[in-house]
Amino acid sequence: MERLEYFIRRLLLIVPTFLGITIICFALTQFVPGGPVEQLMLQMRRIGGAESGPGSPATAAVSAEYRQQLEKHFGFDRPLWERYWHWLVRDRLGLRMESYKFPNKTALQLIQDRLPVSLVFGLTGFLLSYLICIPLGIAKALRHGDAFDLFSSLLVFVGYAIPPIALGMVLRMFFCGTVDDFWDVFPVSGFHADNFATMSLGEQSADLFMHMALPVLCYMAGNFAVLTVLMKNSLLDQIGSDYIRTVLAKGGTARRAVWGHALRNSLIPIATGFGGIMTVMFAGSVVIEQMFEIPGMGRLGLEAIVGRDYAVFMGTLSITSVLTLVGNLLSDFCYVLIDPRINFQKQ
Known about the structure:
This protein is mainly alpha-helical. It has helices at about 1-30, 35-50, 55-75, 80-90, 105-140, 145-160, 165-175, 200-240, 240-250, 255-265, 275-285, 285-290, 295-305, 310-340.
């Protein structure tokens, strides 16, 4: 009953937390210079200056006359609270707003176009990271101090020391044919080939693998060392605990003590990242998507910020915020599944 009350409180807290995040970000987008009105005014000044000369009365008249019309068109003539309410209710968290950068496209349509790419890319990288790092961390803990542990630690920390952007550049140089005298094995950019729709199922699978291999490898490199070392240290701490010594003292085997007791408790710190799967599936990785020109959600958000496309930015922010908050709740739920003894005390 206490756990149920805790999860209900956490679920109810999502609403005010979401409102706080979106209100702050919405207010910033309304006052930061370089928005849609300023961009269109700059274009008008360039056209007016080219036709009448810089500083001419015609240019000033265009600026004064059309600025009010543009502000009315984009809703900037209304109070801030009214604009936010329209964004929240009428525009359905901004998803029905039309993009400033892509005419005749709403934020929801752009998200729907990019979402499948981020789902495949983000989910694959996330699952592979856990499926490899958890067994590797367990193996390192059970063989702590031997040659395997030392050699794998060297590889793990070398990979961790290389930034994903640097690793991506090196991989592209060696395996994408961007530099002569190296191998041209993988595609240099994109998510699939141009003739992807005409391929058979086997050819499509092979094409996706070739396009995803290097980006997923770069994505995993950033989390590889953290997850592996966290799993190893967590299991070592559990193995050295008093309850494991008690199991051994009562005649239990080392295999039972490790796999039946210590392993389950050692997964509790790892469960912290389980909730992140919600955001990863949606947002992906901005740096990697930009480097390999993958049309995913991370790249869409970056393009919206750089291009001052606040309609798309707020649409992606609203969904990402909800997924992050729900993901944090999912992490707590994973704690309970792993160890039912966990007790959430009322603060």
